Amino acid sequence: PRSARSPVVVASLLAERAGVNVSTVKDFELSRRVVSSRKVSQLCAAIAAAGVSLIPEDRRGGVGVRFTSI
Question: Residues 6 or more apart from 7 whose CB is under 8 A from it?
Answer without folding.
Answer: none
